[in-house]
Amino acid sequence: MAAPAVLSVEKFSIAMPDGTVSTPALSLGQNINNCVPFLTITCDTENNERQMVDVAKNTGTNKFDFVASTFGERDLEVTVVEFNPAEVTIQEVAFTLGSGLSVSVAVSAVVIANTFPIIYAQCPGDSLDNFSKILMRASITTTTNLSIIKDTHGANLTGHAYIVEALNGAWDIETGASIPINHAAGDTAKNVAITVVPARTGAWSYWDTAELLDDPRDAVWDTVITDATNLDLTKGNAAGVAGAGDIEVFVVNFAAEVAVVQQGEFNYITAASKTAAINAPGVLGNAMIVGTNAYGWCEGSGTSNAKAAALGRMSFNSATEVLGTRSGVGNGNYRQNFQVIEWLIADAVNPQIIHIGV
Fold it and tell me: Does residue 296 fall inside a structural domain?
C-alpha cells in the first residue's frame, strides 16, 4: 500500500423516535462517497421488523439517512469511516427483498477475495415477529453480483448494501470468499478452521433461518474469532423445531498498517447493561466498537427470551472500558460478542461526537 487506507472516523449518537432521521452533515471534510456507516442499535419494541434500520446516503447533502418503521423508538451508535479512494472503493447499492425470497443485486466488478458487504434493511410492515421473515443471508456470488436471501416472506425488506473492496492489499477475505455454514434446527454451535492473526482480523456474519417463532434463542447466531485457528458460532439453544438455515461469514484479514482489532464479549445474563475491559487503543478517536453482525444481535438462552432484549448498542466508556446496553431486561440470558477496530490513520483526527434527537 502506497497510502493510508482510512482517512477519518466520525461518531454519532442518534435517537430515532420517528421513522426517519438524518445525521448532521459530516464535519471532517469527508467525501460521503468514500464513507461507510457502521452501527449498533437498541429498540423499545418487541416487534422484530421495528428493530431494523436502513442506512443510505442523502444525495447532495453529505449526510446519511436512517429509515425504519414508524412504530417504536430506536437509539443508535454510528461510526462513519472514510476510506481512501486510492486504496478502497465503496459501492452503495439499493435492493428490495420480496416474495421471491432472494434478490440478485448488480454491482460493478470487484475482486471477491478483497471485498465484504455491510448490509442494512428496514420493513414498512408490522407484526412480522418471525425471524424467518427478517433475517437475511448475504454473499458475493460472482464478481458482479451480491445475493441476499430470506427464508419466509411477510413483507418486502428494502435496504442498502455497502460493497467495500480493498485495491492494494489493505485487507483480504479469509478463504478467498465468505465462509458458508449450514445449520440444522438442533445445532447450537458451529466451528470453522481458519488461519488468521486475531489482532488484525474482523468478522461480519449474515444468516437466514426457517424458525417460525420469535425467540432469539432459536434464531440468533453470534460469531467470534476465538483464536488464530478457530471461528466459532453459537446459538442460545435448540428449542425451535424449524430453525435450520445457512450462515455466511466474511472474515476480514486487515493489513498491519490498516487496523488493530480486539475481540470481546458482553455477558449480560439478565442485566440491562454490561461493561468490558479492553486494551487502550493508540488513538481512541479512531476506534469503533461493533458487533459481528450488522445490527448487534444478542444471543439468548434460557426458558424464554424477549425479542426487545436481543439487540445491544455499544459505546466507549473510556479508553479501557466499553459499554453494552440491551434493548430490554427480564427473561432469558443474553450475551454478545463485540470487536473493537482501531483504524490506523497517519494524521490522526479526533472525531466530533454529536448527539442527535436527545
Answer: yes
Whether 278 contacts 207, CB under 8 Å = no
- Contact (Cβ atoms closer than 8 angstroms) between residue 234 and residue 221: yes
> Are 188 and 238 contacting, i.e. CB atoms less than 8 angstroms apart?
yes
Burial class (CB within 10 angstroms; exposed 0-12, middle 13-18, buried 19+) of 74: buried
Mean pLDDT across the stretch 141-150? 97
Instruction: Tally the domains of the chain.
Output: 1
Q: How far apart (Å, rounded) are the C-alpha atoms in residues 342 and 72?
A: 32
pLDDT number for residue 207: 94
Contact 263, 198 (CB under 8 A): yes
Q: Is 1 a member of any domain?
A: no
C-alpha cell, 147: 445475493
Domain range holding 159? 6-356
Between 51 and 230, whose confidence is greater?
230
pLDDT grade, residue 59 (50/70/90)? confident
Position 83 in a domain: yes
Contacts of 318 (CB under 8 A, 6+ apart): none
Q: Residues 6 or more apart from 251 whose CB is under 8 A from it? A: 173, 174, 175, 179, 194, 196, 201, 202, 203, 225, 231
Model confidence over 12-33: pLDDT tens digits? 999 988 778 888 889 999 999 9
- Cβ atoms 196, 253 nearer than 8 A: yes
- pLDDT number for residue 69: 77
Residue listed under C-alpha cell 479469509: 174
